[in-house]
Structure formats: structure tokens, C-alpha cells
């Protein structure tokens, strides 16, 4: 007996889900054009590598920032010495302005309400420490980011109760789904402390509408609970409708009773990991109107500060308005182009996606490729993708999706050439699957499966992406 803590021996970190297992399989056999052309292509990693050249160009034009100089003088000593947990004011101002710019400057934010954290991971956990006691619950719409089981529950002892969303309305949150989740938590004797949403959504790649955000605000106001909006993908919105931050909608809700109290219960999480493609820099933030939350979270940020060197570099970059506006604009165009490439490639294989306008991935409908409508069949198909097709994609079950057959495919962490190879591998796989089912259909064994493919196609709901005529033509 090793006498380790319960935290270490329990498995609420969720690290054994297929989401993380897929990454391990990729690490063992990664694709390389020359050295390993049959290796696994990583489509399970929501990284944005599409606009690195813009950042590199900025670095080349601003050598002082990276070499720790100001007006020709070294500021090495200033940065190397102890920094307190409030963060460098110029960097906090830069983050606030960047967040406002992404929100179309429709909302004005205040840097005294911002707490810096080493990414969104500690930002979400810190909020859980501030808002819950062990055993309290947060409600999360499904499907949700696989890392939340670790980030929200593992060290805090908080619980997640799913708000069950499904494909019948494009996985949108409804009043009844919220109420069901709340009563499910009560049945489990859990005290509900809030709702956590990801807007734009990972894994759906969709933004929330005014109506949904209003519904959520009314719900948390009437239940006297918190709302956390993880807006880590806010700068990736590449098509209409535009991104709407919860902070914007909050400013419009003059009808709510005790609006000041409600305002204090709404918190935003942000990071530069996706929008600027800098997950290795570890830069994130909490934005809250509640002074006590800001004060406690600032103290807790001691456990994961952003290094002063990083803050300095990024404060220079984010204060360059010409750079930020060009970056945001250009990055969105590139994301849109990639999303189109993925959708077209999948369309050529007879596969559809949920209509999306944001993110670094598509939510892909492969229900017609399942041998049965079960999560076992989903896992079986996932294994085929990883080991036979050579693609690490993420199964819906790892995002707690309530329906088997959905997968998340990332498109921004590889070159166009590799994405093209991935699409060809999928096409070959789907063709062989359909050929197998048709050639064996004569003996009756798989008749159900091939019939099901046609049947499911017909049933594809209006929520599922349909290509415009032009896209279809280009895709050929
Ligand atoms: C919704 C969501 N929140 C938080 C994170 C963690 O981000 P970070 O690298 O800033 O810790 C991710 C990463 O994929 C994410 O998708």
C-alpha cells in the first residue's frame, strides 16, 4: 500500500477517456510525410496553427519585445525579479482591449475585474474553487469539452450534471433541458451552484444565439445561481451569426430583478490558447463583476501565474492595434477556408457535419457508419479510424454526447496537404465499408446496415450542414 491520497487514486480526472487515449495512440505512431507516411494523422487536437506566420512576422519586426528591451535598454532585471500576483498592468490592459476587439467593441470591460491565470484550465478550476464546495454541482450542456471532468471536478470535489442536448434542434439548450438537469441534480442530493457554457462551443463549433443567452440569464437569475461562460474560442468565429458574449446580453437585461446581484454571478473565462494559437505560452484570464471572486481568484492565481517574460512580450503585441485587427481578420478567413475544405472532403464521402460558424473543428455525423445505434458501436468505429484508417478523431462519447455516432474532427492543427490526405483516407474507408456491406448484402447478414445508411441519410435533419451549390461544384 503506497499511502497516496484519494485524489491521486480516484479517476475523476477523466484522463482515461478515448479523447486522451487517442492522443497517446497518435504519439506512438505519428504521421510524417517522409519518415512515417502510414502513421496516424492527429485530428483530435484543437490547436490553431493557421496564423503563426503573422505572429512570426510581428516578432521579426519587433525584436525588442522578445529580447526583453525597452527603448534600447534591457529590462531583464525588472522582469526577472519577483512579480506579485496582480499581473503587469500594461499586459492586463492589452488583454482587455483584445477581448473588447473580439467582441466587436460592443462591450466595454474593466481591467480591475480581470484575473490572469496560466490558461483557461486553471481559470475554470479557480472559479470552481471560488463558487463551489465539495459535492456542489454545475450544470453543463452536452456535448462538452472532455477536459472539463478534470478541470472542474478532480481537485475541487465539485460535480458536473449534464444538461442533455441533442441533434433534434442542433444541440441547443432549452428551458426543459435546463429544468431536467436541475431536478436530476436535486434527485442526486447535489446543490446546484451554476451553469457553465462554452460559447462558441467545443465540440460543436457553434455560437449561442441571443435567445439562448437570454434563456440562460433568466434561468440563473430565477434559480439564484452562477453562470460561467468559457469564451476561449470567441476570436475564431468566421461566419455569421456573429459572436455574442454573455457580457453583452447581460448589459441589455434591465428587466431582471436584482440585476446587480445577477451581474455579480456572471463570470467569463478566456485564454490566448486558441485565438492566438499559443497554448504553450499558458495565458488565460477570469473576468468577473464580483469583487470577492476577483480578490480570491487573484490570490489563487499564485498557483499558476503567467511569467513576467510572457506578459511583457504579449503586452507589446496586443497593444499593436494594427497587428491585432489584421490578425483577427486574417485568422478568421483562414479558419473559414479550412472548415470548407473539411466539409467538402467529408461531403465527397457522403458524410455531413452540424452547421457551424466557429472553432477549430467540425461536429461530424457518422451515425450511418455505426453497426448499431450504441456507444459500443461508436467506440468500435473510433478504433477502426485510429488503427485502420490512421486518423485520431474524437468520439462523441468522450464529450458526453447523448447520441452515439457523432465525432469531432479538428482542421487547424495540420497543413492543407495533410488535411487532404486525411480526407482521402476517409473516402477510401467509407467506400470499402459500403462495398463490404453491399457485397455481403446478398447473404442477408448486413442488409440492415446498408439499408440503414440510406435510411439515415434521408433522415438527416435540417440542422446538418448542407453545402451551397458553389461549394459542391468546387468540391468535385
Ligand atoms: C472549452 C475549453 N476550455 C478550456 C480549454 C483549456 O485551454 P487552455 O489551454 O487555455 O488551458 C480548452 C482547450 O481545449 C477548451 O476547449
The name of the CATH architecture of the largest domain is: 3-Layer(aba) Sandwich
Look at the helices and sheets and give the structural class. alpha/beta
Provide the gyration radius in Å. Answer: 23 Å
Number of domains: 2
Number of DSSP strand runs: 15
Relative helix content: 40-55%
CATH superfamily of the largest domain: Type I PLP-dependent aspartate aminotransferase-like (Major domain)
For the biggest sheet, the summary is:
7 strands, mixed
What is the general shape?
Answer: globular
Small molecules in complex:
pyridoxal-5'-phosphate
Low-confidence stretches: 440-476
Give the N-terminus to C-terminus distance in angstroms.
62 Å
Side by side, the strands of the main sheet go 4-10-9-8-7-5-6
Describe it for me?
With 476 residues, this protein is an alpha/beta fold. The protein folds into 2 domains: 6-52 and 324-473, Aspartate Aminotransferase, domain 1 (Alpha-Beta Complex), CATH 3.90.1150.10; 72-319, Type I PLP-dependent aspartate aminotransferase-like (Major domain) (Aspartate Aminotransferase, domain 2), CATH 3.40.640. It has helices spanning 6-9, 18-28, 52-61, 63-66, 76-80, 89-102, 120-131, 148-154, 175-187, 210-223, 246-252, 259-264, 291-300, 308-318, 321-348, 375-389, 416-441, 447-459, 469-475; strands spanning 41-42, 69-70, 73-74, 114-117, 137-141, 159-163, 192-198, 226-230, 266-271, 284-288, 352-353, 361-365, 391-392, 394-395, 406-410. A 7-stranded mixed sheet has the order 4-10-9-8-7-5-6, with helices on both faces. It is globular. The N and C termini lie far apart (62 Å). The site of pyridoxal-5'-phosphate (PLP) has 14 residues, from helix 7.
